[in-house]
Write a structure and sequence with these properties.
346 residues, mainly alpha, two-stranded parallel sheet, 18 helices
């Protein structure tokens, strides 16, 4: 596990995050109706860009990404790039026109590189196809030397291409030089560690905890231990992780969630992931609180891991949480944990 030490910077020890306020919420907390729940809804900035792209106009998307680059809004930029690339897979005309018109535009290059990685990732020939994408990622990384998002993409690419540890560490060091607390880069590194050392969950928690301690209080990287908890709960391999460590990861993420805007789409993935983990831990009041905070915004991840219909799965789990609160029944949770992925009580 020596590579973990290369990923871990000396942290400013802040200790454990303050526990999220825990109290029994009333079972009649008002949640949006099922018909009002939206899956992967864009925020107010991305929505118009997607509408324009559907009509073949790339200009709003280009303007949006250029603004994130000027402002150094790297977390929003990362999310927009991923969403635009997904959209371009089914409706490629606007991106193809953008690339033809301005082939050296750093924003168009980045969306194209993300789309290429996504397409290669889903192929049976993933490793070979990903190697062919490398020049495009390199070109995107040269577009703006401050931008960590191409390096997050390079980290994902390296994981899919089964790159060696030394090469991955070089990418990681380049990424954190640009943005020491960038959430996407940290998630990519954690997923590489998890895939490289199947079952090394305690080591992944070590990396995630140190990164969260080092990050500012409002940084999304505060939620990195939540990813480690999710990896453990959905893997089932390796030594058991003490339940207290899973609880601490959920508590830290809940503190962060409480600082983020309520009922907005951009924090929805964090809150959906936190709900997943809280339900796994059968923490019904806390899961209900996250459902209240996320409002009508469901996200495909993590629910698409358990079902072909992520929206239906989200609504099913939401109903189970309400039932558990109303009747003290763990039925929704037991169904959610049907693979027996219960945390250690150690």
């Amino acid at each position: 596990m020596a590579l973990l030490h290369g990923f871990t910077r000396t942290s400013r020890a802040r200790g454990r995050a303050d526990a999220a306020p825990v109290g029994v919420l009333p079972a009649d907390v008002v949640l949006p109706t099922d018909d009002d729940v939206l899956l992967d809804a864009p925020d107010d900035a991305l929505g118009p860009a997607l509408v324009a792209a559907a009509g073949g106009d790339h200009a709003p998307a280009a303007g949006l990404l250029a603004a994130t680059r000027r402002q150094g809004s790297w977390e929003h930029r990362d999310r927009y790039v991923r969403r635009l690339a997904v959209f371009a897979r089914s409706r490629p005309g606007w991106l193809d026109a953008w690339r033809a018109l301005d082939p050296h535009d750093p924003d168009g290059l980045l969306v194209e590189a993300q789309r290429a990685v996504d397409l290669a990732w889903d192929s049976p020939a993933r490793t070979e196809l990903l190697r062919e994408v490398s020049p495009l990622i390199t070109a995107a990384a040269k577009g703006d030397d401050r931008d960590p998002v191409p390096w997050r993409l390079a980290l994902d690419h390296a994981r899919g291409a089964r790159a060696g540890h030394r090469y991955f560490q070089e990418l990681w060091e380049a990424a954190v030089r640009r943005a020491p607390h960038h959430y996407g880069c940290h998630v990519a590194a954690l997923r590489y560690l998890s895939s490289s050392w199947h079952g090394a969950h305690r080591e992944c928690f070590d990396f995630a905890d140190l990164a969260a301690q080092d990050a500012p209080e409002d940084s999304l990287t505060q939620a990195l231990p939540l990813w480690a908890a999710f990896g453990y709960l959905t893997d089932g391999g390796g030594p058991e992780v003490p339940r207290a460590r899973l609880e601490a990861a959920a508590d830290r993420a809940a503190v962060l969630s409480a600082r983020l805007p309520t009922g907005h789409s951009w924090p929805a993935e964090l809150r959906n992931l936190l709900t997943y983990v809280l339900v796994s831990l059968e923490r019904w009041p806390d899961a209900l609180e996250q459902l209240r905070l996320t409002g009508p915004y469901a996200t495909s991840f993590p629910w698409d891991r358990d079902a072909d219909d992520p929206l239906g799965r989200f609504l099913e789990v939401r109903q189970g949480v309400r039932a558990a609160m109303a009747f003290g029944s763990p039925g929704g949770g037991n169904r959610f944990l049907r693979h027996g992925l219960r945390p250690s009580e150690e």
